[in-house]
């Protein structure tokens, strides 16, 4: 009985180790648009918190970094530098867009008629 229990535990451990399969993370994966979009929105918000572009981008990257660190601690998941690249691109675009649209003193974009 004890041997059967040990074999069952070993078989369960083997199956769970193989259930993850090979790690795949392409540059055009289905979650990359979400990384870009959320970071861009956070970048627009961060542009209101700091006039310095680098500081605002850094602030916008904090949630993306926290998410990747969380992913690194999960089974069958890893820290993704490609996700972080999309986060950085989105944060930069968001900060620049926020600075362009909102300006340092509020809404700056005016549509001319």
Distance between the termini: 85 Å
* Percentage of residues in strands: under 5%
Derived structural class? mainly alpha
**Structure annotation, total helices:** 4
Low-confidence stretches: 4-9, 11-17
**What is the H/E order?**
HHHH
The gross shape turns out to be elongated
Query: Helix content range of the residues, please?
Result: 55-70%
Specify the biggest β-sheet: none
Outline of this structure?
This protein has 113 residues and is mostly helical. 69% of the residues lie in helices and 0% in strands. The chain is elongated.
Question: What attributes characterize this protein structure?
Answer:
113 residues, mainly alpha, 4 helices, 69% helix, elongated
Characterise the protein shown here.
The protein is mainly α and 113 residues long. The protein has a domain at 29-102. Helices cover 69% and strands 0% of the residues. It has 4 helices and no strands. The chain has helices spanning 2-19, 32-49, 53-72, 81-102. Helix 2 packs across helix 3 and helix 2 packs across helix 4.
């Amino acid at each position: 009985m004890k041997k059967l229990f040990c074999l069952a535990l070993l078989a369960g451990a083997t199956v769970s180790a193989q259930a993850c399969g090979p790690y795949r993370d392409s540059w055009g994966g289905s979650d990359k648009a979400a990384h870009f979009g959320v970071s861009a929105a956070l970048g627009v918000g961060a542009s209101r918190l700091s006039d310095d572009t680098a500081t605002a981008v850094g602030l916008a990257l904090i949630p993306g970094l926290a998410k990747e660190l969380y992913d690194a601690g999960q089974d069958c998941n890893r820290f993704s530098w490609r996700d972080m690249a999309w986060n950085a691109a989105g944060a930069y675009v968001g900060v620049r867009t926020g600075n362009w649209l909102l300006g340092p003193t509020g809404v700056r974009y005016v549509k001319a008629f």
